Amino acid sequence: xxxxxxxxxxxxxxxxxxxxxxxxxxxxxxxxxxxxxxxxxxxxxxxxxxxxxxxxxxxxxxxxxxxxxxxxxxxxxxxxxxxxxxxxxxxxxxxxxxxxxxxxxxxxxxxxxxxxxxxxxxxxxxxxxxxxxxxxxxxxxxxxxxxxxxxxxxxxxxxxxxxxxxxxxxxxxxxxxxxxxxxxxxxxxxxxxxxxxxxxxxxxxxxxxxxxxxxxxxxxxxxxxxxxxxxxxxxxxxxxxxxxxxxxxxxxxxxxxxxxxxxxxxxxxxxxxxxxxxxxxxxxxxxxxxxxxxxxxxxxxxxxxxxxxxxxxxxxxxxxxxxxxxxxxxxxxxxxxxxxxxxxxxxxxxxxxxxxxxxxxxxxxxxxxxxxxxxxxxxxxxxxxxxxxxxxxxx
Length: 395
What we know:
Helix content is about 30%, strand content about 20%. By secondary structure, it is an alpha+beta fold. The protein folds into two domains: about 15-175, no CATH class; about 230-340 and about 380-390, Sandwich (Immunoglobulin-like), CATH 2.60.40. It has a five-stranded antiparallel β-sheet.
């Protein structure tokens, strides 16, 4: 059973079609003359001029795309499945050669020795994964120089400067690894990943707001997302009210509105968001009264969708219910919103450990256990709101 998602898609743009034509070619290009320093593609080398981007990348999930969570799966996937995962998790053939025998050809190993002379300590998504093809550097338009000024300076820039591609500021650039292919598996009429399509049909797209505007503000290379509490909070607005009904019950009306998210929240089938309502006594002890779950719940075999309660951009998830109050016990009501960024992975990994644990090698089992622990630790409380119990008016 493959736990990873196959996410190589087709693209309309000719540059992007070539740029993300997997498997990528090696960096060998005899027509380009570079010094040894310039041809060294280690991210640490890029940091000599791009220190801020390097430091941001180090803390990003792109820099952790080859970790325990994917490495343990190599033992249970076919060669074809494993290599398909690497198209996005480790795009360069030189980095793939570190973790896949398929890419340990003479040509690729020769390119790896030349362009990574100190070796590859981290075969994840690197600077060159997005910015370099055949020893030609690509990037977005300069924010400080005109096209003519940049052309004049190119000859004096390291690695012959770079070719400007506006696609680096387009959502389509991200589509390759964040959208299922058109021919990909569907559940209940929806692909496993549709974040680009979700965005494409929104006011965000109509206004020209791209993925990069939110996930790479000021060209920041941390690519914040569902795992970052502050980032998520900025896109949501919770509101609620308590009223006492004529028969003495408490009516709760709660609304979580998507105010700054350009796709469904949460996107993909991996995260879940729990809206929980508690009654709290004078000692601070809480009792769960009601729970509502946001997300797309799919079985671990990726063959059946149970529900999809995600919020579309600009809309809300509403929860309304009544309950009978024990006035002596409950003084305050709490609304807590908890995010589990890796819920589907946790469920899948727990099942794999339970059913396959004894069949895995010791190293692979340890990788699975470590990844499972890491993903369980990713949960966080997004909001906690409290309201006093409405007073009972005298009759």
